[in-house]
């Protein structure tokens, strides 16, 4: 009887030593970390619900070499409900702006900028203080027409 007890203790000691050896090898090789450093998780950005708000003045700047785009876009915005007096169209200081973008000044203007971007058939929206209205009491959105709206910059639609 005493021989079986010794054999059981020897088997148990062998299993424990093997498990400790495997665990130690995994720790030394870096496959197991006892105290892992927490990985920061990215918080999802809140989705903005576009709102079409015709109380905003709209400034349209053509930043491409193609003439007449600002006037065409003005007609599209006016057809969506803005008054012709509240929409100004003109040329920009450059002719190489890559992507059409609706700029807004304050964070609370983001939903209106997203709504205007939908009205013109899609555009990027970006907060910027570059295009500030002359009168700070006026709410204004600025559309800068990019090369993506030109015949040369338009991407061809895929053929099935």
* Overall average residue pLDDT: 85
Which radius of gyration do the C-alpha atoms yield? 32 Å
CATH class of the domain at 57-149: Alpha Beta
Strand content: 15-25%
Helix content bin: 25-40%
**Element order, helices and strands?**
HEHEEHEE
DSSP helical segment count: 3
Give a count of the beta strands, DSSP E runs of length 2 or more: 5
What assembly state would you assign to the polypeptide chains in this entry? single chain
Care to describe what's here?
The protein has 160 residues and is an alpha/beta fold. The chain has a domain at 57-149: Alpha-Beta Plaits. The chain is built from 3 helices and 5 strands; from the N terminus they run αβαββαββ. The protein has helices at 2-28, 69-79, 110-119; strands at 57-62, 87-91, 101-104, 124-127, 140-145. It has a 5-stranded mixed sheet, covered by helices on one side. The chain starts with a helix and ends in a 15-residue tail after the last strand.
Question: What keywords describe this structure?
Answer:
160 residues; alpha/beta; Alpha-Beta Plaits; 5 strands
Task: Give a short synopsis of this structure.
The protein has 160 residues and is of the alpha/beta class. It has helices at 2-28, 69-79, 110-119, and strands spanning 57-62, 87-91, 101-104, 124-127, 140-145. It has a domain at 57-149: Alpha-Beta Plaits, CATH 3.30.70.
Give the SSE layout.
Blueprint: H1 2-28, E1 57-62, H2 69-79, E2 87-91, E3 101-104, H3 110-119, E4 124-127, E5 140-145
Parallel strand pairs: 1-2, 1-5, 3-4
Antiparallel strand pairs: 3-5
